[in-house]
Design brief:
Elements: H1 2-8, H2 10-19, H3 23-48, H4 53-70, H5 75-84
Helix pairs in contact: 1-2, 4-5
Length: 87
């Protein structure tokens, strides 16, 4: 956001450039490094995630099927329908 404001405001640009000529370069480097660190952390988090999503969906569909047999059109059935087939 600071880069956007810096680019749109000639007065701010003049003030900042008076004190630091390399501000844009430093901010760009910091932003790139921060984004790269976040990408690595997210990749490691996803890699270590052992959640079995297929099993979760199988359970959701089984719940919906059970409600369709026993409590058809009830609130529980409609909610389970939204979470299973509605997705």
């Amino acid at each position: 956001m600071l880069l956007y404001i810096h680019g749109k405001s000639p007065k701010l640009k003049a003030i900042v450039d008076k004190y630091d000529d390399n501000l844009l370069d430093n901010l760009e480097v910091e932003y790139t490094e921060s984004r790269n660190r976040e990408t690595v952390v997210n990749r490691d988090t996803k890699k270590n995630d052992k959640t079995n999503n297929i099993q979760h969906y199988n359970v959701l569909f089984a719940i919906e099927e059970e409600y369709s047999k026993t409590q058809y059109s009830s609130q529980k059935h409609i909610i389970s329908l939204l979470y299973s087939k509605g997705l």
